[in-house]
Design goal:
- The chain is α+β, with helices and mostly antiparallel strands and 171 residues long.
- 32% of the residues lie in helices and 33% in strands.
- Helix 3 links the parallel strand 5 and strand 6.
- The protein starts with a strand and ends with a helix.
């Protein structure tokens, strides 16, 4: 079961079908939010299908995906996911938040909770993150969370930079 986390400004919880509208409006439908990601701008119908698909995937294990709800207006403003391998004790975090919520420290707040979950509950030893080198906002958030730069790898659309953090780094 995917746990729910609440911070001062956010609630990270499993997606439900009722989230489709606000997730679409605040994140999925805006091209600016997808500028550096391989994910396209989604139709509302596709968002509803994705939420159903994510439920199926999570039941299979190895991933946890949360809706990021802004506590002031109860709108879903983004997404955060942790893909993990319990055998290698490692994981990868992926995230995105709507542009109206950029620059407020919200993603850092969400990532801190997910790192605690990964290290303290799943007992992971390492979590990585990857992003397009041109996405300076994502790189900044990743660094502010204490992740260390490891390498840059050329990819089809752009170079991708990789970061990691170890369990002992956040204690």
């Amino acid at each position: 079961m995917i746990p729910t986390f609440t911070t001062l400004r956010l609630t990270m919880r499993p997606f439900c079908s009722n989230d489709a509208e606000s997730f679409y409006r605040n994140y999925a439908a805006d091209a600016e939010n997808h500028k550096y990601y391989a994910a396209p701008v989604y139709s509302f119908t596709k968002v509803k299908q994705l939420i159903e698909y994510w439920h199926i995937r999570q039941k299979q294990g190895g991933e946890a995906r949360w809706a990021i709800e802004y506590n002031l207006n109860h709108e879903v403003i983004g997404i955060i996911a942790l893909y993990f391998d319990e055998h290698s004790l490692s994981g990868e975090v992926c995230f995105g938040i709507g542009k109206d919520y950029w620059g407020k420290g919200l993603m850092r707040e969400a990532l801190d909770e997910i790192f605690c979950f990964g290290f303290n509950i799943l007992r992971l030893k390492k979590i990585i993150a990857a992003c397009d080198v041109r996405n300076v906002r994502a790189v900044g958030v990743i660094k502010k969370c204490g992740m260390s730069y490891k390498r840059t790898v050329p990819e089809d659309r752009s170079d991708c930079c990789y970061f990691d953090i170890y369990e002992k780094s956040i204690n």
